[in-house]
Amino acid sequence: MRILEGKKGIVMGVANHHSIAWGIAKKLAEQGADLCFTYQGLPFLRRIEPLAKSINSNFILECDVLNNESIRNTFAQINKKWRSLDFVLHSIAFSDKNELKGKYIDSSRENFSKTMLISCFSFTEIAKEAYPLMTNGGSMVTLTYDGSQRPVPNYNVMGVAKAALESSVRYLAADLGERGIRVNSLSAGVMKTLAMAGISGGKNMMKWSEKNSLMKRNITLDEVGNSGLYLLSDLSSGVTGENHYVDCGYNKVSVPKET
Ligand code: NAD
User: Fold this and answer.
1) Does the beta carbon of 195 lie inside 6 Å of ligand 1?
2) How many angstroms separate the alpha carbon of residue 137 from the centre of ligand 1?
3) How far apart are CA 109 and CA 33, in angstroms?
4) Per residue in 4-35, pLDDT tens?
5) C-beta of 29 in contact with ligand 1 (< 6 A)
6) Is any ligand 1 atom within 6 A of the Cβ of residue 190?
7) CA spacing 20 to 30 A to 160: which of 39, 109, 113, 169?
8) Main-chain dihedrals φ then ψ at residue 78, nearest 5 degrees
9) What is the pLDDT of residue 187?
10) Residue 246 forms beta bridges with which residues?
11) How many other C-beta atoms are found inside a 10 Å radius of the C-beta of residue 198?
12) Which pLDDT band holds residue 63 (cuts at 50, 70, 90)?
């Protein structure tokens, strides 16, 4: 028996086959879940269509989280087709790459607001639209990074947005817990993706964590996929309000070992 047989979920944030959301979606589909995919805008549709098809999904909706109407419309369409929902994966972030370099102190007001809206508040708005459909309880997961806890060069405003996102996970978990809806974040180690390419010195982040993580390597898409499966399924039925690290122990390093 596959653990997600008969379960329905929305996967938001697949840009291509390197995306963390795609790594998780494959694991969800292997376990029998029916998936709805959303994409940000037309250029992404070309990439997502064949991926969705490869795991027998043809339920694909456009959703730009900058636009509240677009979020509302997405969940209205899910309600129309499925009537109910079991899980939500939010794997979305954006900041102007000109501010993912240099100093945090130079952040602009405009990009601060936009980064917070897309990378943090969209999860709250999505949760608000999703929970009325989750009548049998369920699970919501968002993606974060350790730059929320410790300053990482060039991560800047995104670190601040991730800190707010992690806090919003705890508030949402408190709001929705009595309905049997769990809300958690997954703090992934660095991975080569489109979002990562926007961060100045991304290659250095990858090299540094490979050299210094407790396991002396970076994580794989398969591993983040398995952790996503755990949090989105009943395997984690007693877990909510948590930030779960899947980073080969990198967040536990204080002084790297001399080599
Ligand atoms: P990715 O580029 O594959 O995914 C980012 C997604 O965000 C894309 O699908 C993009 O379309 C979507 N997005 C951006 N703005 C949007 C908008 N206005 N409306 C709708 N969608 C929008 O990169 P990824 O690394 O898979 O990123 C997924 C999540 O994982 C992000 O939250 C990222 O911060 C987080 N994360 C990434 C790493 C890493 O090293 N790559 C590590 C930890 C956490």
Assistant:
1) yes
2) 26
3) 41
4) 999 999 999 999 999 999 999 999 999 999 99
5) no
6) yes
7) 39
8) -65, -45
9) 98
10) 188
11) 19
12) very high
The tokens for 17 are: 């086959």
Give me the amino acid identity at 69. E
155 in catalytic set:
yes
Going by C-alpha positions, the residue among 24, 54, 56, 21 that lies closest to residue 38 is 21
Using an 8 Å Cβ cutoff, are 25 and 55 in contact? yes
- Output DSSP code: residue 190: P
Shortest CA distance to 91 belongs to which of 65, 54, 59?
65
What's the whole-number average pLDDT of the chain? Answer: 97
Q: Are 151 and 158 in contact (CB under 8 A)?
A: no
DSSP state of 247: S
Across 68-100, b (16+ Cβ under 10 Å) vs e yields: eebbeebbebbeeebeebbbbbbbbbbbeeebb
In this structure, what token pair is assigned to residue 133? 């459909």
d(CA 142, CA 165) in angstroms, rounded, equals 8
CA dist., res. 210 & res. 213, Å (int) = 6
Amino acid at 19: S
Does the beta carbon of 194 sit less than 6 angstroms from any atom of ligand 1? yes
Question: Atom 34 of ligand 1 has which residue's CA nearest to it?
Answer: 93
